[in-house]
Design brief:
Radius of gyration: 22 Å
Keywords: Activator, DNA-binding, Transcription, Transcription regulation
Structural class: alpha/beta
CATH topology of the largest domain: D-Maltodextrin-Binding Protein, domain 2
Order of helices and strands: HHHEEHEHEHEEEHEHEEH
Largest sheet: 6 strands, mixed
Strand content: 25-35%
Domain HTH lysR-type: 2-59
Protein name: LysR family transcriptional regulator
InterPro entries: LysR_HTH_N, LysR_subst-bd, WH-like_DNA-bd_sf, WH_DNA-bd_sf
Number of strands: 10
Distance between the termini: 51 Å
Number of helices: 9
Helix content: 40-55%
Family: Belongs to the LysR transcriptional regulatory family.
């Protein structure tokens, strides 16, 4: 019979693409991952990996096996959720991941509600870029996470995860004067770290307006971004939740671009009592948030 733990390694390899990345994510050594995958090939009786130098790719048989693995892991999550409903009280640990503006505006009030309603549930929060959240959910270092997508940066569906809409924000052009986006083709720009969704959104929104932004500064905290705008260091695109501490001298121009936040968790885990409680608390907090 195929080993679920080995199947999980194969699933992660399909997402992370290198054995080293799988090892780092799941706290294995690379050699241990290689050995486990080799053992899975022997159990399966067919080749699962094609090795070219240091590169490893999945064979068609492995791709098919990964699809089955997603369903198997979802059923196991559902079984664990059903067992947890038999307990009289919510206990254990719930690990939640969120991006900085959501921690301040949505997550903090939700934590107060969860702690009050379930005092024996240990809550652990990790602040991280939404682009990293799906990997953390699959690796089981998070149980619930807030993930994002922008109009110009759609996020592909992940068969390992389920997500549900939570809230939507306007994206603003932050500048010293009120001008359309296309007027800033020669301006200096302030953007998030390359590789983040916010950085990609800035580049693609400008390209849609007919130019490539000349990015001078990189900052991930929107308070810092607005301070740089106020200091005349450039212009920036900032979502609604990032504009709440706007300094004097910064003008905000609403764009048709939107940022959408979804609540995500592993497929099959939605009815786990702790996950369900978090879903309710986060949704209620989002509904009460000013401007929602």
């Amino acid at each position: 019979m195929l080993d679920v733990r080995k199947l999980r390694l194969l699933r992660e390899l399909s997402h992370r693409e290198t054995i080293a990345a799988v090892a780092q994510a799941l706290a294995y050594t690379p050699s241990a991952v290689s050995q486990q995958l080799a053992a899975l090939e022997r159990e399966a009786g067919v080749a699962l990996l094609t090795r070219t130098g240091r590169r490893v790719t999945l064979t068609p048989a492995a791709v098919a096996l990964v699809r089955h693995t997603e369903r198997i892991l979802a059923v196991l999550e559902q079984a664990g959720a059903e067992l947890a409903t038999t307990r009289a009280e919510l206990t254990g640990t719930l690990r939640i991941g969120a991006f900085p503006t959501a921690v301040r505006t949505i997550l903090s009030p939700a934590l107060v509600a969860l702690s009050s309603a379930h005092p024996r549930l240990e809550l652990r929060v990790t602040e991280l870029d939404p682009a990293l959240a799906p990997d953390a959910l699959r690796a089981e270092t998070l149980d619930v996470a807030l993930i994002q997508e922008y109009d110009y940066v759609p996020v592909p569906a992940d068969p390992a995860l389920h997500s549900e809409p939570l809230f939507e924000e306007i994206v603003y052009l932050a500048a010293r004067s009120a001008e359309p986006l296309a007027a800033h083709r020669e301006s200096a720009w302030i953007a998030s770290t390359p590789g983040t969704l916010c950085h990609t959104m800035t580049v693609r929104a400008c390209e849609a307006a007919g130019f490539t932004p000349r990015i001078r500064h990189h900052a991930d905290d929107f308070g810092t971004v607005l301070a740089l705008v106020a200091a005349g260091q450039g212009v920036a695109l900032v979502p609604e939740f990032g504009t709440r501490d706007r300094p004097p001298g910064v003008t905000l121009g609403a764009l048709p671009t939107r940022r959408r936040t979804h609540l995500a968790y592993r497929r099959g885990a939605g009815d786990h009592p702790a996950v369900r409680a978090a879903r309710v608390a986060l949704r209620e907090s989002a509904e009460r948030s000013p401007g929602r």
